[in-house]
Structure formats: C-alpha cells, structure tokens
Design goal:
Sulfolipid synthase; Rossmann fold; alpha/beta; six-stranded parallel β-sheet; about 400 residues; Glyco_trans_4-like_N; 13 helices
Amino acid sequence: MGRPMEMTDLRIALVSGNYNYVRDGANQALNRLVGYLLRQGAAVRVYSPTVDEPAFPPTGDLVSVPSFAIPGRPEYRFPIALSPRVRRDLAAFAPNVVHVASPDTVSHRAVSWARARQVPVLASVHTRFETYFRYYNMAWFEPVMEAILRRFYRRCDALVAPSESMAQVLRDQRMNYDVGIWSRGVDREIFNPGRRDPEWRRGLGIADDDVVIGFLGRLVMEKGLDVFSDTIDELNRRGVPHKVLVVGEGPARDWFEARLPGAVFAGFQGGADLGRAVASMDVLFNPSITETFGNVTLEAMACARPVVAAAATGSESLVDDGASGRLIRPGAIHQFAEALRAYVEHGDLRTRHGAAGEARAMEFSWDRINQAVADTYLRLIRQRAGARRQG
C-alpha cells in the first residue's frame, strides 16, 4: 500500500464555459476554489473560452478553448471544440481528476477524454439551465433539455451542487446518484451591516427615512425582472411608500428602466462598492428561480438585510421563512407585495429578521467550503484506484 493521497498530489483540469470573461456568481466561486487549491499546493489548469478584455484577471493558468459569440447574447461565448492544441496541453498536464463546470460541447468532450484514460470526473452544477426556456416562450423544450443534461451528468463520477435543495432536485431528476454539496461562502470584510452609507444613498436621491427595496443581479429576463416589476406596481397601487434600488447591469436594463420609472439604477458595483450598495438597501427582493444557490441572497443576509425570495432552489436553503425573510411561491405577485409591505411598514421586523439572517450567513466560510470540493476530488481518485485494483 502506498501513502494516502494528499492535496499536493492533486492535478486538476478545470473546464468552464465562462471562467472570467463575464463576471457571475459561478465563476467567482470557481476562481476562489482555484485560488484555495493553489494555496494548498495542488496543481490546477483551467480550460475556458477567453476574450481580449475579460471582466477580471483569471486565478491560475488559463488555456483558451475555441469558441464563438452566442447570437442574441454576444457577451457570452459558446465553447465549440477540444482542439488538437488543447488536447496536447491536457495530455502534457496529465490531470488525475477532471472538473467540468458547464454542460457544453467542450465539457462533453472533456468527459469522454477523461473516461478513455480512466480519470475520474467531478461536475459542478451552477445554473438550472432547463428553467431558462420558460423565459423565452419555450417551456416545451424543458423536458428535452433535462434529458440532455441527464445524459451528460450520468457520465460523470459525481456531482456537487451549491445547496441541499438543488442537490435534491438533481437526485429527483435522476441526474446522478453521487451528489454532494459545494456551498458558497461570503466575504465578511465586504458584506456586513457596517457598510451602510447614508451619504451614498443621499447622493442617489434616497432620503434617510426612505425604505429601499433592492434588486441585485445581472439584468436579464431569467432573473425574474417581470415578477419584480409587477410586484412593485402592486405596492404602488396599495400606496405603500418605498424606493427601489437596482444594482447590476445587463442587456435588459432598458426594459427594466422603462418598467420602473421611479427606481434608482446604480449600475454594476463590485468589491467594497457592492457591499456598500447591499448594506444601503433595507430589504432584498429576489424573485429569480434559476439560481442553484443564490449568492445575492447570502450577501444581503450578511449585511443584516431581510430577504423576500421565490421559494425555489437556492434561496430555500438559506432563508428561514418567517425568521430571516419570506419565501413566496414563484410568480405570486400579491403574496410578494404583502411580504414586502410588512417589511416597509415595520422597522422592528426588518431589524429582527435581518439579525437572524446575519447569524445564518456567518456559517459560510470559503476555506471550509472549498476544502469539501478538494476532499471530493481525493475520494473519487481513491475510488477509481480501488476499482482498477479490483478489475
């Protein structure tokens, strides 16, 4: 028997559809994971589409894979091939585990490459891709997409999902029988109640006694912008005084601005500026059902802000309904409005539920969370070696 495998023995090939060219919660988590793995002495090589001016510098070594801009959403790129150049690079790197982070063509090829060489594969699930079609009048395609995803994920040795609620969805959909949790952490330096800035609020035309309902995220229709807007209309009809603060950018910004004429649009905020923006809200409203975790929900909770969210994967694992926020049936406009009205009109309720959310957010430490992924790599390598010995 040889010595037990350690972190420094790991050689991880990470294949991602978007590692750093457009910033999102998924690739922020991937970059944090790579940074942690490198600090522990593991070797990591990342394979992803690249652009001339990415949203942020990549953590670790990044190898560009061939891709093209997606029609209608040109900011995103579709990886098209594991080219001979990339295959040579993979072979030279000689990974002992492959991690795929998106169910695209290149990840399919990477899984085949790994299986042919008896290298275990871990897939991380970041987005409920099958739900996107609801926002483009293509709900009929959802079961087809689910079948495509099932074929992909069953060829992997194990999956990790960001929340227990999402892991249960994957089990129910029979995507794989080895599903673990790779949760998300929150940076308490950036996200805490002390970041609240009345001066910044005043600069946006928000008075000190205005109760601010916040939206945080990329401005695309699948984030539930229609439900958000309809709910704000309902609050206005009921005469509930409030301000709306929208933090984020995206292709649907013009549509959203036209739907919310009285809202304040702060644009993209990052780092400490984002912490200030979230802490300067009074309640976060997150109607989206496409997230597998809900980073924005956790960030608001860390800033001691109550959250009104759709009762969907992600938020369900974070928000304690009636204690740190409200979980409402997706699309239920009147119930969303009623939950928000309670927070607008009762400052003591906001304070109490915000404090409960902050306490919950303290449980999420990035290093502990990322070590769980490293432990999964080591387990899969051990299992593969054991299967080889028995075979």
